[in-house]
Amino acid sequence: MYHHLPLRSVACAVAAPTLLYALFLALLTIPYLQNQVIYLHRVNQTGSSDLNVPEHWGFLRNQVTPFHLRTPDGETLHAWHILPLGLYQQHEDRLVQEPASEVAPDITQRLSFQLLRDDPEALLVLYFHGAGGSLGSGWRPQSYRALSAGASDKIHVVAIDYRGWGISTGSPSEAGLLTDAQTLAAWAMNDAGIPALAHRPSLGTAVSISLAHSLATGAENDPVLFSGIVVVAPFADVATLTATYRVGKTIPILGPVARWPRLLTWLNTWIVSKWPSNARLAEFVRACQRIPGDGPKYDVTMIHAQDDYDIPWVHSDMLYWYGVNASSPAGITIGELEKEKVDSRVELGDGGWAVTSRSPSGVLREQIVKYGVHDRIMSYPVVSQAIVRAFGYGRI
C-alpha cells in the first residue's frame, strides 16, 4: 500500500533546510561568528593534555621549552622552542639536569636558547600554524620534528599560538594575528639574533605571507627579508576560499551559494578578515625587486597535495601565478604561464610534479604532491627538503 504525503508536508521538508541555511548565512555576517568559523580557535583538539608539558607529545625532557611572548598591544602568546634532535643529543646530559620544561620565566637563561643564540650557524624556522586547535594539535608536533630533519643539529623551530588559541590571551583578528607574527619575528631578530625562515600550512600561510610583506614594505629604507618562505596548503584569499572550503572534507560552507556568483560576491563584502595572500605575495615580490643590491631577495615555495579536500590545490596554482606575474617585467597571462609550466615541469611520478620560476630578484616554486591530504603533508620529507633548500643547503 502506498501512502501519499500531503503537498504541504513536502513543501515544509524542502523549505526548512533552506530557511536554516539562510539563517546560517545571515549569522555569518556577524564578525564575532565569522571569527569562530574562519579561525576555529575555540576548538580543543588536545583534550586534557597540558601544553606546558611537551612530553605529552613524545618530546624528550627539555627538548621543548615553553615560554611567553608579550605583544606590543598587551597580549601574551604561548610559544614552544623545539631543539633539533641531533643538537639535543650533543647536550643531553646538561639539558636533562635543568628544571622541567614548564613555562620559562626567562627563556634567555635556558640552555636551549643559548644553543640557538650562541651558534653562528644555527637556523630558525618560525612556525605559524593553521586554523583550529593549538600548537600541540593534530600533526603539528610531528611536523616540528620533521622540519629539522635535513640538518638535525642546526634547525631550531619556534611555534606560537596566536591570540585566542590554546592558552594565549586575546581574540583573533587579521590585524591581531599579523601583530603576533611580527612579535615572533622581532624576538627572532632581536633576542635570538639569527636568520629565520617563515613556514606554515593553511591559515598560517596567510600569516607568513602577510608578515613577509609587512617586513619588506613597512620600512622602506630598512627592509627585512627572510631566508625563505615555505607555505603548505595555502589559499589565495578568504573570498576565494569561501567558494571551495569544506569543513571536515565534506561540508561546503558556501558551496551552494557559489552557483550564484553575484550572491557570493555580495556575501563576501561582509567578510572582515580577508587575508589577501595573492595580492600580498605580488606586492612582496615587487617590493623585493625595488631593493638595491645583487642576488636573490626572496625564496618562496608552495606545497600542496592533490588529495587535499579542505583547500583544493588550485589555490597554490593561483598564488604561483600572482607571484610569477609580479616578477615578470611585462607580466604573464595564466595561459602563457600554463604553457611555460608544461615545458619546465619536473615529473616526480607518484611524488607529483614541480615547477620553478627564477628572476634576478628571487625564486618561486610550486610543488604538487599526489598524497598528503591537508595535515599529514606537514610531516612529509617534501616539506623538510623545502626547508633545507630555502636555507641554502643542498641543491637549489
Short description:
The chain is built from 14 helices and 12 strands. With 396 residues, the protein is α/β, with parallel strands linked by helices.
What is the strand and helix layout of this fold?
Blueprint lengths: L6 H21 L3 H9 L24 E7 L5 E7 L2 H6 L1 H6 L13 H7 L5 E6 L11 H8 L7 E6 L13 H19 L3 E6 L1 H15 L11 E4 L5 H5 L3 E2 L3 E2 L8 H8 L8 H14 L7 E8 L8 H14 L6 H11 L1 E2 L5 E7 L2 E8 L11 H10 L6
Parallel strand pairs: 3-4, 3-5, 5-6, 6-9, 9-12
Antiparallel strand pairs: 1-2, 2-4, 7-8, 10-11, 11-12
Helix pairs in contact: 7-8, 8-11, 11-12
Q: How does this model look, in words?
A:
It is a single chain. With 396 residues, the chain is an alpha/beta fold. It has two domains: 43-170, no CATH class; 195-237 and 275-396, no CATH class. Helix content is 39%, strand content 16%. The protein has 14 helices and twelve strands. The protein has helices at 7-27, 31-39, 85-90, 92-97, 111-117, 140-147, 174-192, 203-217, 238-242, 261-268, 277-290, 314-327, 334-344, 381-390, and strands at residues 64-70, 76-82, 123-128, 155-160, 196-201, 229-232, 246-247, 251-252, 298-305, 346-347, 353-359, 362-369. The strands form two sheets. It has a ten-stranded mixed sheet with strand order 1-2-4-3-5-6-9-12-11-10, with helices on both faces. Strands 7-8 form a two-stranded antiparallel sheet. A hairpin with a 5-residue loop joins β1 (64-70) and β2. α11 (277-290) packs parallel to α12. The longest helix is centred in the N-terminal third of the chain and has 21 residues, at 7-27. The relative contact order is 0.11. The mean pLDDT is 87.
